[in-house]
Amino acid sequence: GAGVSQSPRYKVAKRGQDVALRCDPISGHVSLFWYQQALGQGPEFLTYFQNEAQLDKSGLPSDRFFAERPEGSVSTLKIQRTQQEDSAVYLCASSFGGVEETQYFGPGTRLLVL
Amino acid sequence: AQKVTQAQTEISVVEKEDVTLDCVYETRDTTYYLFWYKQPPSGELVFLIRRNSFDEQNEISGRYSWNFQKSTSSFNFTITASQVVDSAVYFCALSGENSGGYQKVTFGTGTKLQVIP
Questions:
Q1: Which residues of A touch B45 (CB under 8 A)?
Q2: Contact A89, A41 (CB under 8 A)
């Protein structure tokens, strides 16, 4: 079946603009994760959903970052009033759930804030 | 707190050489999971292997092999007879049992491998 898909693949935003990044997880995957990957670094955890419930948002860097998964499938990561330091690749991953399960990643959205 | 250290930032090898990527981890959990992911230039993280803390058997998959040693908190990855297609950034990662029942993964900073033809 299809893997995790993300859109757009690239996004250029002017500082202060709002952006919305979409993630379509693998069908049937209960868990969904968002990560931020700065240039030359490993991915860093942002937030976690189990179905539609956002159970952990401890990694969101500021209150300008907001994520939702209203029907337990597609998720959107929204960044309000973007800043240059928000420039990064945003990765989405999904899994069947549970500590032992493997996360499968999408191709990421590369965000550049000018 | 969990930590993953990949001390090798970049490695260059000539095709057909063997190469080992090092990974050292820190965790207070007794049950934990270790992973390796490959990130080619396209950007997508490709899952390679998962190991739980109770299984110290080394694993081989084709040209890939992994050496898990709890005594030294290491989970090293060896590519035998490297090929140009192996060129990528490789990430070691860790998740622990105390993550609230879900997998909160900590990644290392990655090792960029360049295989020269």
A1: 43, 91, 93, 105
A2: no
Among A59-73, A96-110, B4-18, name the one with the lowest average pLDDT.
Answer: A96-110
For chain B, the residues whose C-beta falls within 8 A of a C-beta of chain A are: 4, 31, 33, 35, 37, 42-47, 50, 52, 91, 93, 95-97, 99-110
Q: Which of B23, B30, B102 is the mutation pick for testing A, counting most A CBs within 10 A? A: B102
The Cβ of residue A47 has, within 10 Å, a number of other Cβ atoms equal to 23
The DSSP secondary-structure symbol of A80 reads S
Cβ-defined contact of B45 to A95 (cutoff 8 Å): no
d(CA A36, CA B89): 16
Q: What are phi and psi of A85, to 5 degrees?
A: -70, -10
Burial (Cβ within 10 Å: 0-12, 13-18, ≥19) of residue A14: exposed
In three-state secondary structure terms, A46 is: strand
Beta-carbon contacts of residue A76 (< 8 Å; ≥ 6 apart): A20, A21, A22, A23, A67, A68, A69
Length of chain B: 117
So what's the pLDDT on residue A98?
73
Confidence at residue B59, expressed as pLDDT on a 0 to 100 scale: 86
pLDDT in tens, A58-95: 999 999 999 999 999 999 999 999 999 999 999 999 99
* CA dist A27 → A1, A74, B95, B97 (Å): 8, 10, 23, 26
Residues B108/B12/A112/B46 CA torsion (nearest 10 deg): -60
